[in-house]
Design goal:
- The chain has a four-stranded parallel sheet with strand order 3-4-5-8, covered by helices on one side. A two-stranded antiparallel ribbon has the order 1-2. It has a two-stranded antiparallel sheet with strand order 6-7.
- Helix 3 packs parallel to helix 4, helix 7 packs across helix 9 and helix 9 packs across helix 10.
- The model has no long low-confidence stretch (mean pLDDT 93).
- The chain is globular and about 95 Å long.
- It is of the alpha/beta class.
- Strand 4, helix 5 and strand 5 form a beta-alpha-beta unit.
């Protein structure tokens, strides 16, 4: 939000956190707040539970990362769909037993409107109308290998948060209209090797733009350079070579 021009104070007002004691607000009498949570504490009356916080604040997105299985209840999911055309539901906790909700629960409760992603893998869901939605798995395999490859190849000495933000943008650009029509928010995981190539190239381009790369001169063909330095796990043959012993 700040990169798009919103002042930090205004950006914080659009982020609301909920913990075991309820909504995190300034001067919370019930349970208090720790220092790292205080950074995102807004001015608001205390709300003791997530369901009421959703009804009151009407968020556009729910992000679960507390490993409390089932905390995104049917009521909460229905409420999200009632005031959002495309409610964003990210149940990112894993393993599966700790997921805030399943893909099927999110799609059913929102009548297929949810933009869903999870930390655990879930099967595709077919709506009563016959449309199949493919839930995205928010797996670090999408970003970490590509960023690490780019950082290594182009000699980036300091890895800032901006590098990961740039990688996230590059990943989003790889999502096609066809993917979106299927309900995906990430490319198929089967394409992760190609994703890594694109992210490594983007990381390199960003590093040269910001003068944080230490590999010089800059490769004339970035894609060729990246591909030539990727590990290839394919072998031409596992069989040893045999030669006929001469008869004489």
């Amino acid at each position: 939000m700040e990169q798009e021009g919103l002042p930090e104070a205004e950006a914080k007002k659009r982020i609301w956190l909920v913990d075991s004691k309820g909504l995190i607000v300034k001067d919370r009498a019930s349970g208090g707040i720790t220092e790292h949570k205080a950074h995102f504490a807004n001015e608001h009356e205390h709300i003791p539970d997530l369901a009421q916080a959703v009804k009151t604040l009407k968020p556009t997105a729910l992000i679960g990362a507390a490993a409390i299985g089932g905390v995104f209840t049917e009521e909460i999911l229905r409420d999200m769909a009632s005031f959002n055309d495309k409610p964003i539901i990210f149940a990112l906790s894993n393993p599966t037993s700790k997921a805030e909700c399943t893909a099927e629960e999110a799609y059913k409760a929102t009548n297929g409107k949810a933009v869903f992603a999870s930390g655990s893998p879930f099967d595709p869901y077919t709506t009563p109308e016959g449309k199949t939605l493919v839930p995205g798995q928010g797996n670090n395999a999408y970003v970490f290998p590509g960023v690490a490859l780019g950082v290594t190849l182009f000699g980036v000495r300091h890895i800032s948060d901006d590098i990961f933000l740039e990688a996230a943008k590059a990943l989003a650009d790889l999502v096609t209209e066809e993917h979106l029509a299927e309900g995906r928010v990430y490319p198929p995981l089967q394409q992760v090797r190609e994703v890594s190539v694109k992210l490594a190239i983007h990381t390199g381009e960003y590093a040269y733009e910001k003068n944080i790369a230490s590999l010089y001169p800059k490769p004339s063909n970035m894609e060729e350079f990246v591909r030539s330095n990727m590990y290839d796990y394919n072998y031409e043959s596992f069989e040893p070579e045999f030669y006929d012993w001469p008869s004489q």
